User: Which sequence fits this backbone?
């Protein structure tokens, strides 16, 4: 069951990821990105991260992607045009990315030669309570710094948007 | 202890690496600013998967918390980045990344 779920949602994530890179229209890419995020939320659940799976759906697939699609529709972004130099880049880039992937896979196999097995329920400490207690005790300072960062982001977005209204 | 249908942890890490490489490819190949920005989000998601997989490996919740901070920073980044994209579009009337190169020289 775990293997079947992993394979199904990993394939969905990969296909949506490839679709994101291949599509030329931004709306198609945005919908593919929502597919990747939803599939990853299921994989988080399989890894025992219940709180983060919910946060992934609410924050990423909900809030952030709605913001993206809102901007795409607001700017009426159409299909991007093809520049002539891209074919040379494509010929050079694909082998480089393949080499990068090969190196990463080699390092992963080297670091974890006898990989442990992952099954649903193998790690119980990912619920809201287990995440919340260290978040508000040991990680209190990073949490507060993050809230200041969010405040700065809100003020920056308001100032940037205000400039174009004037 | 482990059921017969369990998945090796390596598969999660390799899936994360493939998604990260796809994000790099989109970042380098695409010419629309919005798609480049979405590729960055894809890379952040791939790194989050890696964090959660290693959190499972060590049976500790710290990876989850770091991943949560990555999500928060991604939200802040999306708000500011999309505001910048709006401003660029108002000034240049274009979303092509090749035409917005006046800071390059």
Assistant:
């Amino acid at each position: 069951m775990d293997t079947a779920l992993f394979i199904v949602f990993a394939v969905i994530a990969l296909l949506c990821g490839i679709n994101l890179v291949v599509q030329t229209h931004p709306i198609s890419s945005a919908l593919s990105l929502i597919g990747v995020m939803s599939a990853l939320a299921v994989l988080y659940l399989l890894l025992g991260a219940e709180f983060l799976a919910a946060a992934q759906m609410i924050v990423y697939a909900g809030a952030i992607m709605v913001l993206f699609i809102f901007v795409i529709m607001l700017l009426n972004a159409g299909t991007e045009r093809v520049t002539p130099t891209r074919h040379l880049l494509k010929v050079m880039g694909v082998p480089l990315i393949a080499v990068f992937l090969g190196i990463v896979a080699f390092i992963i196999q080297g670091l974890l030669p006898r990989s442990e097995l992952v099954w649903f329920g193998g790690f119980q400490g990912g619920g809201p309570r287990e995440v919340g207690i260290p978040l508000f005790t040991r990680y209190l300072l990073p949490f507060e710094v993050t809230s200041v960062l969010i405040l700065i982001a809100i003020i920056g977005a308001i100032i940037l948007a205000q400039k174009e209204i004037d | 202890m482990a059921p017969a249908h369990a998945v090796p942890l390596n598969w999660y890490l390799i899936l994360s690496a493939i998604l990260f490489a796809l994000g790099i490819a989109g970042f380098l190949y695409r010419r629309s600013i919005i798609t480049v920005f979405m590729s960055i989000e894809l890379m952040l998601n791939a790194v989050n998967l890696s964090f959660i997989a290693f959190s499972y490996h060590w049976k500790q919740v710290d990876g989850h918390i770091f991943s949560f901070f990555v999500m928060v920073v991604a939200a802040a980044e999306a708000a500011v980045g999309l505001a910048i994209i709006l401003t660029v579009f108002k000034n240049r009337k274009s979303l092509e990344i090749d035409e917005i190169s006046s800071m390059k020289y």
User: Anything to note?
Assistant: Chain A touches chain B through 83 residues (CB under 8 Å). The radius of gyration of chain A is 20 Å. The mean pLDDT of chain A is 88.
